[in-house]
Write a structure and sequence with these properties.
Elements (H helix, E strand, L loop, with lengths): L2 E4 L3 E7 L15 E6 L1 H11 L4 E4 L1 E3 L2 H12 L8 E3 L4 E7 L5 E6 L21 E4 L5 H14 L2 E5 L9 H5 L3 E5 H11 L5 H8 L2 E5 L5 E5 L2 E5 L12 H14 L4 H16 L11 H9 L2
Parallel strand pairs: 1-4, 1-9, 2-7, 5-6, 9-10, 10-11, 11-12
Antiparallel strand pairs: 2-3, 7-8, 12-13, 13-14
Keywords: ATP-binding, Carbohydrate metabolism, Cytoplasm, Kinase, Magnesium, Metal-binding, Nucleotide-binding, Potassium, Transferase
Pathway: Carbohydrate metabolism; D-ribose degradation; D-ribose 5-phosphate from beta-D-ribopyranose: step 2/2
Main location: cytoplasm
Length: 297
């Protein structure tokens, strides 16, 4: 079928630094790289490299940054027929990466704020399709896309990242799967008045929940019960796109009708590989690379 990714696309300026800056602190690094990024684009690249037919829905400006931002999507063969060119600058992110692979990121949203759910044609949201969303485009547009997909039978996955914006409870309850990290889980739990764990959030919403915890792996609460998936041990180089890799590969695996258990394990393997490479979209593994890691464990 098809993985439809509605979300952000950015040009990333990546700075490898001897330490991450503190407030009021300037850190000099040896240089920088201009790379494609944005949570939506990263997830679309991950899904496509894992073998899914992938359509990206988002917006860029008519500027030089757009070529950088779109290079990863084009290289992965993602369908860009639903991309809009708008009268706003292409989004840009400054990504500071420390020696342990940790990062600090600032984003100028630009054209991402003009991405619209109306760019998704109704015929795309048919049963069997997977709609994957994040929160770097307007929350109101995310909400519209969720409800349209739900009414037409598509499977809906939301990565609630970043979790600064609030979505109504009924939107979260309409999802097939909610993906959160520990910080995002705490924010959701406060809004719902429950504990910040996958089982409690699922009980409050009635929606399957995957809680990603970096090197501690993933906990998933579903109708079938509570499951834990350990992370694949690696020496991280850059963790910037690991969560996006996990979401994109999960969507691709579910699109191929893999059971949720197998899809989550595959996503953990792919995310581990992404951590060993610099950059975000450029770090996403191919399906063959993920297969090889899974076969070795």
């Amino acid at each position: 079928m098809t993985v439809i990714v509605f979300g952000s696309v950015t040009a990333d300026l990546v700075f490898s630094l001897p330490e991450l800056p503190r407030p009021g602190h300037t850190v000099l690094g040896p240089g920088y790289r201009a790379l494609p990024g944005g949570k939506g684009a990263n997830q679309a690249v991950a899904a496509a490299r894992d073998g899914a037919r992938t359509v990206f829905v988002g917006a860029v400006g008519a500027d030089a940054m757009a070529d950088i931002a779109l290079s990863g999507l084009r290289g992965a063969g993602v369908d860009l027929s639903r991309l809009a060119t708008v009268k706003a600058p292409t989004a840009c992110a400054a990504v500071c990466v420390g020696p342990d692979g940790g990062n600090q990121i600032a984003v100028g949203s630009g054209a991402n704020l003009l991405a619209s759910a109306q760019q998704i044609d109704d015929t795309m949201l048919r049963p069997g399709a997977v709609l994957l969303l994040q929160m770097e485009v307007p929350p109101a547009e995310v909400a519209v896309a969720v409800m349209r997909a739900r009414s037409r039978g598509a499977r809906v996955i939301l990565n609630l990242a970043p979790a600064a914006a609030d979505l109504p409870r009924d939107i979260l309850a309409a999802l097939d799967l909610l993906v959160v990290n520990e910080h995002e889980a705490m924010m959701v739990a406060r809004r719902l008045g429950t504990a910040p764990d996958a089982a409690a959030i699922r009980a409050a919403l009635g929606t399957d929940v995957a809680l990603t915890m970096g090197a501690s792996g993933v906990t998933a609460a579903t109708a079938a019960g509570l499951f834990r998936y350990p992370a694949f041990p690696v020496k991280p180089v850059d963790t910037t796109g690991a969560g996006d890799c996990w979401c994109g590969v999960l969507a691709a695996a579910l699109d191929r009708s893999l059971p949720l258990d197998a899809a989550m394990r595959r996503a953990c393997a792919a995310a581990a590989i992404a951590c060993t490479r610099p950059g975000a979209a450029s770090a996403m593994p191919t399906g063959a690379e993920t297969d090889a890691l899974l076969a070795s464990r």
